[in-house]
Amino acid sequence: MYAVIKTGGKQYKVQKNDIIKVEKLDVDSGDKIELNQVLMIADGDNLTIGKPLISGGKVAAEVVGHGRGKKIRVLKFKRRKQYLKRQGHRQDFTQLKITDIAAA
User: pTM here?
Assistant: First the structure.
């Protein structure tokens, strides 16, 4: 059984006991949360697709922790103009462990 969920403007295919990294959520480590934006649930040959969301579909997850991703280097450069700008960025994330997938 797997589901496709939407959180933080991105979509994730998840199964039970998966650990995923999503955009930072304002919750504490160890908390249990429910993700209500379920786009699709597949259970063997039984496939449920939402229009666009499944009403009553829920994915339960536990917050494992928070962190920051790898540094991304941004470089802006214009030749022959003596222009060079360097910048770095690290995106915050929340790590979730999927505990349950439930349809309506």
Answer: 0.84
Q: How much is the CA Rg of the chain, to the nearest whole Å?
A: 19
Residue 64 contacts residue 22 (beta carbons within 8 Å): no
Output the CA torsion sign for 59, 64, 67, 72. negative
Q: Of 98, 81, 84, which Cα lies nearest the Cα of 33?
A: 98
Q: What six digits make up the tokens of 16? A: 């039970």
Domain extent listing, the chain: 2-102
Residue by residue, pLDDT tens for the chain (104 residues) are: 999 999 999 999 999 999 999 999 999 999 999 999 999 999 989 999 999 999 989 999 999 999 999 999 999 999 999 999 999 999 999 999 999 999 87
